């Protein structure tokens, strides 16, 4: 992300400092890095206050690339390389100044689609009886259990002994309330909506993972706007302080 910082009086100051390029570069690099750190701290606080119970990896999803005296550019962004789905990808629908953005497919949704379980153009959301983790998301354990039950692991990293689950083990899962079944289209007579349901030990039907049309999220977090406002507020003061130090210690 690139931000243009507007600083009044900077050109006049630079004109008075001809021959001091080494000190200017040092001061600019220091100011850029200090500003970037302050922006990153503010962004992390903003993420924590904007999203409902964000995971630690989400709250710390930002990164900073530091400036040097020979490369007067500091960068701040959202990580796009992680072990799971990159934060830059799953946060994208919620980031922006305004408007709505559709979200992309989750890994579990792609696996369900490839297995012919999730209809084309449909997505999934936790059902009323889904098991949720501390962050309000469907528990990874239950997702793994569902995928294993329908043998949809393929060659992904989730592949394990579950891929070759025996019929005996499948029966055991059913006895432990893991008897899942698919409703591909609405059954108005039984009042069952499209999704994955679970037949419990008391013979009731529990909605676990519902099939829905593409969810559209509202932009609630202006990442670039926040960064730009802070950069214009912080940079000049940091530059003046760093330049004063550089000039006082120049040899």
Give the secondary structure arrangement, pairings included.
Blueprint lengths: L9 H7 L4 H30 L5 H4 L2 E4 L9 E4 L8 H4 L9 E3 L4 H8 L7 E5 L13 H10 L17 H9 L3 E5 L11 E5 L5 E9 L2 E3 L4 H26 L3
Antiparallel strand pairs: 1-2, 3-8, 4-7, 5-6, 6-7
Helix pairs in contact: 2-8
Structure description:
- This protein is α+β, with helices and mostly antiparallel strands.
- The protein folds into two domains: 10-100 and 217-248, no CATH class; 104-214, no CATH class.
- The chain contains eight helices and eight strands; from the N terminus they run αααββαβαβααββββα.
- The protein has helices at residues 10-16, 21-50, 56-59, 87-90, 107-114, 140-149, 167-175, 223-248, and strands at 62-65, 75-78, 100-102, 122-126, 179-183, 195-199, 205-213, 216-218.
- It has a four-stranded antiparallel beta sheet. The chain has a two-stranded antiparallel ribbon with strand order 1-2.
- Strand 6 (195-199) and strand 7 form a beta hairpin.
- The longest helix has 30 residues, at 21-50.
């Amino acid at each position: 992300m690139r931000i243009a910082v507007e600083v009044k009086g900077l050109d006049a100051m630079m004109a008075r400092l001809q021959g001091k390029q080494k000190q200017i570069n040092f001061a600019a690099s220091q100011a850029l890095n200090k500003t970037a750190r302050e922006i990153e701290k503010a962004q992390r606080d903003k993420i924590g206050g904007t999203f409902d119970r964000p995971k630690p990896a989400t709250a710390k999803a930002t990164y900073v690339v530091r400036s040097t005296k020979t490369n007067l550019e500091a960068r701040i962004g959202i990580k796009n390389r992680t072990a799971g789905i990159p934060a830059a990808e799953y946060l994208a629908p919620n980031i922006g100044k305004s408007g709505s953005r559709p979200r992309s497919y989750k890994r579990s949704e792609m696996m369900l689609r490839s297995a012919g379980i999730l209809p084309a153009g449909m997505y999934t959301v936790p059902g009323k009886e889904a098991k949720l983790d501390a962050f309000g998301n469907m528990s990874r354990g239950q997702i793994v259990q569902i995928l294993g039950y329908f043998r949809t692991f393929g060659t992904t990293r989730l592949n394990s002994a579950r891929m070759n689950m025996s019929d005996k083990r499948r029966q055991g899962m059913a006895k432990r309330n893991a008897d899942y079944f698919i409703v591909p289209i609405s059954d108005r007579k039984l009042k069952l909506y499209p999704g994955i349901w679970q037949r419990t030990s008391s013979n009731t039907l529990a909605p676990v993972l519902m099939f829905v049309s593409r969810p559209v999220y509202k932009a609630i977090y202006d990442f670039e706007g926040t960064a730009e406002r802070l950069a214009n507020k912080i940079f000049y003061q940091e530059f003046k302080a760093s330049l004063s130090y550089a000039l006082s210690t120049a040899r």
